[in-house]
What does this fold into?
Amino acid sequence: MDTLGRPLRDLRISVTDRCNFRCVYCMPKDVYGLEHHFLERRELLSFEEIAWLAGIFVGLGVRKLRITGGEPLVRRDLERLIALLAPLGSDLTLTTNGSLLRAKARPLVDAGLTRVTVSLDALDDAVFRELNDVDFPVGRVLDGIDAAAEAGLPVKVNCVVKRGVNEAEIVPLARRFRGTGHTLRFIEYMDVGHTNGWRLDDVVPAAEIVATLHGVFGLEPLDPEYRGEVARRYRYTDGGGEIGVISSVTQPFCGDCTRARLSAEGRLFTCLFALKGHDLRALIRGGASDAELHAAIEDIWNHRKDRYSELRSAATTDLPKVEMSYIGG
Ligand SMILES: C[S@@+](CC[C@H](N)C(=O)[O-])C[C@H]1O[C@@H](n2cnc3c(N)ncnc32)[C@H](O)[C@@H]1O
Ligand code: SF4
It folds into this structure.
């Protein structure tokens, strides 16, 4: 338990800070262009180092491992990492922009991946290309989602909503995924990092998204499935399945946050908005034993008191923060 009584249950593992997209709300091109300095290969944790740390985390109570980034599928042979993590027996999932899923879905399943979350912010091709800012067609992401389903993976689809950019996509996305068995989740645009120029006015509150969908399809609330579930769940009253909304800005859920994040270079962050990570790579490359790593991580978690989203205010938005693509979204 941390200082606020929150257990450690989830670990998000970033495997790269690189990405083949330049989503305007995450890696805007003017900042992440040719000049940008990404991590060097030797700075990244190896798959063996990640698996070693993940084993310690599972020993401390982690039940869910999520691979993320940057775009995790741009890291070569990612299925090899999945195969190393699968024997740990925890829920093993991946968040991806879906661009490379057609080729990767089958090898990932064969290696032991249990679920996948695909980010998709628009169905309209022009809006989607504008959002990813690398002219990537939406059809290939939809095909990636199909490939994941064909390979037997349960699929969630995540959509970040930015005011004036993709609000008009909410209803078409819901219509597209109703009845498919894929759960669609809408995420409030968050003030992670500084490069995206976030403003509160850009946030479309989850309550507004729910009201819009309720007006068109009819929704009723569902109970959470487990402690720490970040999405509020709703079901279509006509039986078309369920949706979720993640209201990290308008209704923060720090009180139930059981998540830690491991950056691609092995820094442990206890909050998406933490300033500083704890350098676990220095410990493992310095010859620490399992017991020493276990004790170090336990100590970090025991001292955790982060609850940024609950404290968010005009003053906190200007504090320095790490970027989502670095820490792992
Ligand atoms: C950083 S990405 C990493 C994984 C992968 N590249 C992807 O896009 O799914 C993880 C998630 O964070 C979301 N995200 C990025 N920046 C965000 C922001 N400012 N507010 C809310 N969600 C954000 C993305 O939409 C994505 O669903
Ligand atoms: S949200 Fe994902 S796909 Fe988009 S730029 Fe960030 S890391 Fe890349």
